[in-house]
Specification:
- There is one protein chain.
- By secondary structure, the chain is mainly alpha-helical.
- The chain folds into 3 domains: about 140 residues, no CATH class; about 70 residues, Arc Repressor Mutant, subunit A, CATH 1.10.10.10; about 70 residues.
- About 50% of the residues lie in helices and about 5% in strands.
- It contains 16 helices and 4 strands.
- Strands 1-2 form a two-stranded parallel ribbon. The chain has a two-stranded antiparallel ribbon with strand order 3-4.
- Helix 2 crosses helix 4, helix 8 crosses helix 9 and helix 13 packs antiparallel against helix 14.
Length: about 325
């Protein structure tokens, strides 16, 4: 998970190393939410992510960030999100981020911000950062090196940012990205995949259809939308090069991050390693049941080796193998 987050942050411009062969479109808001939790395991990842947001926070849809956070509870750490938002919101250009601070929960008992390999918060002996301390998180000062770059439009993973530059930081960018990666779809499916309200998507699609670049057809009681000149749009936005060919693919990242978070919490429960294999399998089976809807939305249910009928070591081994491949 940490490797994936590093790769995605690097791909959008944070200082780091990206994998050039990945064709999966990055979801900026999902990336931020997942980083608030898993970034606590890697101090440099967290600080480079904040560095990027301080420079390019205006390219993030706060409406969508709030919506995804509400629809997928548990993925983000609310205290970390609020602390980061406060850091970003100090700048006049990013003052809208302060709304996330207003929504934050009251700080609980102070704990170390970064988490060690044993899964426990690391106590901080340095001078604590006052912003994070206010949210109950003890860490040293942020190391913002100012090395972040804007998303490269030549990198096809950054399609969302390219479309936001073209259409604005609003639902139209996600809608267009979805339509360009699917033959067609109805508003409810697009809304579920992009994280917006279905009625809002319906209204925007009807407006976009007036441009002549989006078409609609009624199938039964549902109205389906598509981009008739999809290949032309694909070539315009992501022309084939010697290093990359083919249009990027859409991935529903939030349900995947939700599954990983749920299993990470299950596996990381104190004392689980000391219990019987039968007990561990029972807990993992419960987690698998809880994650079924998210796996279905991500289109991964049928690819899972772990099945409800498996027991003991067979279930544990199958689930661990599934989790390793889940983010590939």
């Amino acid at each position: 998970m940490i490797d994936l987050l590093w790769h995605q942050w690097s791909s959008i411009g944070a200082a780091g190393y990206a994998r050039p062969d990945d064709k999966r479109i990055i979801d900026p808001e999902a990336l931020i939410l997942a980083t608030t939790r898993f970034g606590r395991h890697d101090s440099r990842l967290m600080d480079e992510a904040v560095d990027w947001l301080v420079k390019f926070g205006n390219r993030i849809s706060l409406q969508r960030l709030q919506g995804l956070n509400k629809n997928w509870p548990g993925v983000a750490d609310p205290r970390v999100l609020a602390a980061i938002a406060e850091v970003i919101g100090r700048q006049v250009a990013h003052r809208k981020w302060r709304v996330l601070v207003d929504e934050s929960v009251e700080a609980s008992e102070p704990e170390g911000f970064f988490i060690g390999k044993d899964g426990k918060p690391i106590s901080n002996s340095m001078d604590a950062d006052p912003t994070f301390s206010k949210h109950g998180l003890m860490r040293g000062a942020l190391d913002l090196r100012g090395m972040s770059q804007a998303p490269d439009p030549q990198n096809r993973q950054n399609l969302i940012f390219t479309l936001r530059a073209l259409l604005g930081v609003n639902a139209r960018a996600e809608i267009m990205a979805w339509l360009l990666t699917h033959e067609s779809g109805h508003p409810a499916a697009i809304a579920r995949s992009t994280g917006y309200f279905s009625k809002s998507i319906q209204q925007i699609l009807n407006e976009m259809a007036e441009s002549g670049q989006v078409a609609s057809i009624r199938i039964g009681r549902e109205k389906h939308f598509s981009v008739p000149r999809r290949e032309s749009w694909q070539e315009l936005l992501c022309p084939a090069t010697e290093d990359a060919a083919g249009f990027p693919v859409w991935v529903d990242w939030m349900p995947l991050f939700s599954v990983v978070t749920h299993f990470a919490e299950t596996i990381g429960k104190p004392g689980l390693d000391d219990t019987s294999e039968h007990f561990q399998a029972a807990k993992l089976r419960d987690a698998l049941y809880d994650c079924t809807a998210a796996l279905a939305q991500a289109g991964r249910v049928h690819a899972m080796q772990a099945k409800p009928g498996l027991r003991g070591a067979s279930l544990v081994n199958a689930l661990l193998a599934d989790l390793e491949k889940l983010l590939d």
